[in-house]
Specification:
Blueprint: H1 16-30, H2 42-45, E1 48-53, E2 58-63, H3 76-84, E3 92-97, H4 110-115
Parallel strand pairs: 2-3
Antiparallel strand pairs: 1-2
Length: about 120
């Protein structure tokens, strides 16, 4: 999802090349976390709404769940944090669950739709 790529302040201590490399690593790690009820990763499902990276390489993620009553609601943020913290240059990660806007299947990537035969 193009709108879920990391952003940094205009006068960032991170160069554009560093931010681009970190963005690629973040997406790679986010794609290792799966909703246990759906065989597609959380990134392709469109569950990642926002990723911010500070100058100190602290990552803040806003994400949602496929449903407010998701049985892994308490565990999913920790899974995401553990995946992101595997990136050596990341110093910290916070994951916030948000429900605005509510998730719906239109947020899925074409790759996710193909995997779930939703075309």
């Amino acid at each position: 999802m193009d709108d879920a790529v990391p952003t940094a302040a205009a006068a960032s201590a991170l160069s554009q090349a560093e931010l681009d490399a970190l963005t690629d690593q973040l997406i790679e790690k986010l794609k290792t976390v799966y909703d246990p009820e759906i065989p597609v990763d959380i990134y392709e499902l469109g569950l990642i709404y926002k990723v911010d990276v500070s100058d100190e390489r602290q990552v803040a993620i806003d994400m949602t769940l496929t449903a407010p009553g998701c049985p892994v609601a308490g565990e999913m943020p920790e899974w995401v944090k553990e995946a992101v913290m595997q990136i050596p240059s990341v110093t910290d990660c916070t994951v916030n669950i948000v429900f605005d806007p509510p998730w719906d299947p239109s947020l899925m990537s074409d790759e996710a739709r193909l995997e779930l035969n939703m075309f």
